[in-house]
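Think of the structure tokens as a kind of shorthand, similar to the way a musician reads notation: each symbol stands for something richer, in this case the local conformation of the backbone. In the example below we present two proteins back to back. Begin with the first one, reading the sequence and then the tokens, and try to describe in your own words what changes along the chain.
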Amino acid sequence: MELATSRKTKSRLLLKVLLGIFLLCAVVVAGIGLFLYQAEQSRLAKSAASSANMIERMKLQAELMKYRDSTKLTQRELESEEMVACLERVPIDRATQKTRLRDAVKARAKVDPHLKTALLDVFNAPLVGDQPPVQYSDLVDEFMADVDLMLTRFWKRNQRLEDVSGIQAALRQCLSDAYRFDPPPEDDLERVKAAEADGDPIVLFTLFKTDPSISEEDQWKRVTTASDRIAESPDSFDPIFAAFVHTDALRFHAKDKKSDGYDAAVRRFLSSWPAAWQEASKREPNTGRDHTCLTLLSLSLEHLNAAAQVDLVKGLVNADEPSVPAYAVHLVVGDLFREVAFDHRGTKFVSETDASAMELFDKFATIASSHFVEAYSMRPELALLARRPLNLQMANGSTPLSVHHWFRLSLSGHIDHQSVYGSYSVALMPRWGGSEELQKRFAMKCLETKTEDGIVGMQSGRFMDDYLTRRTPDVTMVDDPANVMWAKRSIDAWRTHLQCKRKFRCGILSAEFAMRILWEAGQFKEVAEFLEVLGDRSQDINWGKLNMDEAEVRFICQMADGPAYLLWMPIHLQLVFNSERLNDRNTSALHANLDELQTVWLDNSDFVASRFPGLSDEELASKRAYAKRVLDHRRTQLNLLERFHRGEMIHFTTEELAASFTPIGKPQSVELRSSAQCQREAAQIALDIEGVEPNQSDQADTVDTPGDERDESLDDIANAPGGFRVATDWLDYTFVLRNQIRYPLPASYEITATFIEAPNSPHGVSLLCGPDGRSGLFNELRGTQIRFSPGGKFLLTDELPEKWGQTPIFRQWILKEAKQRTRHLRLDIGRRGYRILVDGEQLHERETPLRTEGLFQVGCASSRRFDHAPGIPMVFNVYDFRVQKLEEAPFEEPSYDDLDGLNGLNGEAETNGFL
């Protein structure tokens, strides 16, 4: 029994030990589990915190990067909740807008009495009335009141300076001249420069505006430094001045939109303009200040992406009291809607644009128009606010007034608002519903309007440029006496403009047209006067484009006077300008004129001396030699035309090339040489570089002229077939060898081209024919052309589009014998089409209406690669120039003109009850 009891005790003890061990293990396992659970919870908490931190960092990074991409504004942003909320802050009562606009126009007509007359007779009324009109200089005078407030703060910041009052006066003068585009007085500019060391932002800004001697990098440094210092203590500076500086700094930083500097510039810009407009609201109304602010703000929108543009609107509408003037907000909003509208519209003709895109264009353009009209109704004295609806009225007719009325309303703001003249000149184009008669009428109205700087008179060129560009060569510019009158009166406009010494320079195109008209009309005294007025700016004229040479123009103006005038004019008109009308029968009279001119100019030793008094005997001999060269070149041209009409194949000699072709562009060198020398050079290159012998066809029709090219003289090779050796930068695609003679169609043209250097050049040598649609000979690389690439790897054709505005048709072929550097290019041209031949084999033909007027050009034309640095030379030879009259055109010649102009505008514009 004791044994059994002992066993039970041991069993119970063992059971207790096992139970204790089990409980201990359970506690250990539970402890471990609890530890692991707590560790996991801690890990999850840390992970959540890390994720939250990462999200916050991503949000912060996104906020920092929101202005740095190039996202354009789209329909989505304009229709977003935040933009809709902004627009609700500047509502438009469209039901009463037309009535309010009419009231604003009537009120403006009371301030400007001439406006009523102008609106009732938009086509015939002069641009100004009896009272002096508002000019841009008047706006600058008003704006100077705000400049004085900016300078008052400058004085407070810099009282410690010895000559602070003198510097303040110099700053005022320099800023006044800067906004007038006048050069500042040298003494004042030097005084401001002396104060630059102190680094005041308004000093830096003034030098940025007025100092012409610094580089763009220095300009950038000055304006960005000024922006940084204003940002350090914004309360020390006038808010309007701060907005101006930050805006100009943004323009420079926008060149690198990924930089921190650009991001900071955008944020300063966005914060500065609401503050600037709030400050303007506190002050007396000032048209000059508001015009300057609106112009600067509007032009800056292109430097902002979609997010920044939306934030700008938010900042303007949410500004605390005083609020931003509503017209400024309407202008910005209208600009944004207009931008999106034209993104949908594109640049194609309406018939080629998707209907859905046109619907969106009309939708957003109409919204933009309503904002522009609303802005104008609030501030009708601001020219900019009248120009905006003019553009949209022309685009989709979504405003209550015609483009003609908006033009007149804009001029009431200030008569020399240059941008509106450009917009209105487009509106008067026949394709936009205008007419040539209106273009000429408003050009003359500009010349009749006198301003201190002649800038309104200079706008006449805007209206005439398109009209003269469209004129066909069969109706020359002198056939209309109004064109000659415009050209004569343009001289006074240029004189007034150039005498005012403005820093900005008007384009030279109108002077080119005016000079061309006077020259063609034989108005030599006016041409000489015009050259005297232009002075150094005569160098800007592209004389080659006008088939003119400045030295010859000046020479003929002296020589073709008195009895010589009647002898020279038939040559001048029939050969120089209308050589395509000559034939082998009506050239005899011109030969007789040339012979008689030889007698008048050269046989009479006193004639040249009477035309150029005061010259030495050596100088007079040079003048007589020049006169002989002019007459010899004209004889050569007549002989070429006579041979062409007889059907001869003309293989140009070097003498004929010198008399016929004018180099246009800025090549490093252009040298006449024999075809034989060109071919020897091509053969040597083929042997040295490519290891191939030249084709036998390359040796055809060659005059064997022995000796190295350095031994050739023009006298020795005058009667040998010739060509040109041209050296030019391989990115200079403007070089053209221009034939002064217009050979009638149908005709065949041929050249041989050989490349000497730069086999990887992105350019090729082209043979071109036409068109002659810009009122005379022109040097644009347009029209039917075949382009031979370096190394002969491909050949490209560029064809005239069948309709105006269409993209030219390009075709490209990979040629056999890709290493061959010499090719014979030939074009057989008619008015209905052309054939392209390469090395004697027809490559392509096309029937398409052409207006070439026989232009025969050889150009250095661009290919499709623009990723190379300039400065790499390209040398090529073009030789074996040939032309021949074709007995049979490539396609049947038309009996009518395929390119008739559009109908003009008839009738008067309605006022729609606005007066």
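Once you have a description of the first chain, move to the second and do the same.
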Amino acid sequence: MRHLLLVVFCLSLSQIYAQKGDFLLTHHFPRHSNIDNSNFEITNDNYGRLCIANRSGVLKYDGEAWDFYQTPSAALSLTVDSTDVVYVGCIGTIGMIDFHERRIGYKPILPADSLDDLFLETHYFKGRVYFMGSKNLVIYDIASERASIHKGEFLNIYELDAEMFVNTADGETFVIHDSLTSISPLQTISYSSKRKGNPDLAVGFDNELYEYQNFEFSSLPQNKHIKELGFEIKEIQWVNDSLFVCSTFENGLLIFNKNDEEYLVVTDYQSGLPDNEVYTIHTDNSDGIWVATQFGITHIAPLFPAHSYSHFQGLNGNLTSVSNYDDDLWVTTSLGLFYFDRDTIFENKVYYEVQRKNQRTSSRTSQASSQKQESDDEKPLLKRLFGKKKLASGNDDQKQKKGLFGSIANIFDNDSNVEKVKGKLDKNAKYVRKVRQIPVDVNYTFKQVNGANGKFLSVLPYKDKLLGVSTSGIYEVTKKGAEIIIPESIRWFMVNSKDQLVISTSNLQLKVYKLNGDVWIEQISQSMDDIIVSMREGDDGKVWMAGSSAIYKTSTTDSTFTIEEELPLNNIFLDEVNILNKNDTLYFINSQGYYYYDSDANQVVENTKLEDQIGPAVHHLYDPVERGVWVFNGKVWHHLKEDGSIEKLEYLGLFPDLRAISIDQGTDKLWLITQNNELLKYDPTKQGGLETFNFFLKKVSNEKGEIDQSKKFTLAYDENFLSIELSKPDFLGLLNPEFQYKLEGLHEDWSEWTRSKSIDFSFLPEGSYNLRVRSRDAFGRVEEGEVLSFTVKPPYWQTPWFYAIQIIFFGGLVFFSTRLNQDSSKNRLLRGGLTLLTLVLIIEFLQSAIGSLFSFKSTPVVDFLLDASIAFMIFPLERLLRELMTKGKVKMKIKKKDISLIRKDSPTK
């Protein structure tokens, strides 16, 4: 019976912990010397950027750039309102991160010395911001910019059913309106989470998860897992309409499915989380989970169509291939051959068999000794802050029964056994010390095959055997060990329809082996004058081989090897040539293009139609299971199959530099090895589960500082330098967005696509402008953002009012000089000097005015020619002005012919 219960329990464990791989995790941390990983709270703004309350201040992060905003003291909590203003609660002060005085920075709401408190929680709700400290509750009305302060011993604050509530240290609960009203709650809540269209979720002080709907609390069925695991829940948050996540104090994260009570994913150190102690969690607008730990911030993508197998223990070396044969996962690396296995972990536990006067007693207490826990006053300050949402602790017996198998630890007990002796020994009893094994975990690991050391390239099924191919030879492989059967330096390999193992070696040898009984026979050994980079068998049984500059059509028997055809192929860069047998036609794919064998012409011909359909073969990989070819055209992966069909997988384009792709037998899933040495299981049926953020203009600035881009702004003539920073949150680092822009008023065409997120304009001429920017991601999806409108004012000397002043001034000089020249009694030297000065000033003004109309780069010679041309143009005007100022009139010469015409046309008297 004992063994039966053990088997049943282990089977139930395997159902709960059935290993489907870990969620994709990416790790982030600011690269600033003065900023550590003491992050107290995370949220995101309306653009999707993370906003982080850090010990040094407030951080904003878009997946690439970190923006830091200094606060007067450590930022402990924060929230974001509907206009994207960040409100932050600090030590002894509260404030906001907003635009003012030509920059974005911290602005206090109350004087820094007015409050002596730690503001551990900040919430935005219906136009108000609630700052909760241990002794003060500050309510800030955004519209009126007024703050009210309520005193008390506050424990936590939360939103439920469109109301704000606060708990106090003495056990009372208040609903918050203009004042605090005491109520008698159905449950005392520690933390809550809201999502539109879903019931509220909450964590009680009793460590229970609740659903709140129709004014009633109901316990969630997921509580049974929490009790079995013995975890203490800290926070709860919705992820999407079905998933929700709970953080624990020391055991990582628990991810549940609201519609499937058996669904549970534990994300902890074994899954790639840097630490099991969670500071805080946050779920963003794209259904991602953010976790703050001592070692930085981790992003978890539960809806991403790929799951990671890279964090399981035992896998070493750079991955070279992955295969699934007979429901076993095999991985080859640069250090050996590994298989995926599951073990049940047992714990040795001491118990005592008690005999007392032929009667047996039992005790159902737990054996684990409890350690004295430090009180809140004894804990370091930061540890108390990270555990700020405290849960009520149970009694000692409940604590002792916590643990993975506390609920079933007694299945081995009988009435004669006790696990712990309390008080003192009974002199009338005999104690016999014994040890038993109790299952405590189901552990998934990669195990290396004994004897399979060195660099392995792949595994290969051969009859009823599994062969491991390494650079040093061929091995027969089982989970118990590997035995080398063919010690050769392998470069390429294949098994043909005659059960012959054909290999090419690094020393330009071609060899053919065959298994006869238990004996491997070397049937053929042939020297080649070329490097063989791939092989494939055609429908006619001929083996086609690709070399550095030719395709070879060969045939084999049990004793002979014949090259029947040698056809030229452009492969001067020694690219791997993938051979595809598509619709009974052999195709050869390399980086130079697509080629096929034309049997009628008996030559290899380029197939431009296939390239037009798919695009260039930027990257291509052979599929060892379905014997197709994967082609990446720079944006999207295509799967070219033997039946002639072509499958397009857009989301797979997030991994442009894959080392290997293999189809999981019996499913539609794919095994991927990335350039970053990650092993992923990819589900193409879930490609629509990845949401993206829109791009936006993060910052607009010039020489004088930042500019408020929410309004149409105007730049002075000496502010004609403009810098724009773009942002498109991409926390997985896979979308690789590109940008292009067009400045209407200066440009007619769009710029080239660029990865740069900065746009700079220098020496903008006066005028009105509209800046249009659009982005393009890895899928080729184009998105255009809002238009940025602004105006550059002309310099004052080019304004109409300044021209009017100049005209009046020079007109006055001409008039005064003319009147002075008409009065002969005046000083002749003064008259001549003023006339000359007036002429020089007018000529210089006209020359400057005309020259300002031409703005182009030139040489000194061109400048001289331009000035001379302007001078010749102005010379007739200078002559007229001189006559006007010296004689008071302009002498005009009229030809005699014109005079006669005037007289002829004049009326007679």
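Compare your description with these statements about the second chain. The two ends are 148 Å apart (CA to CA).
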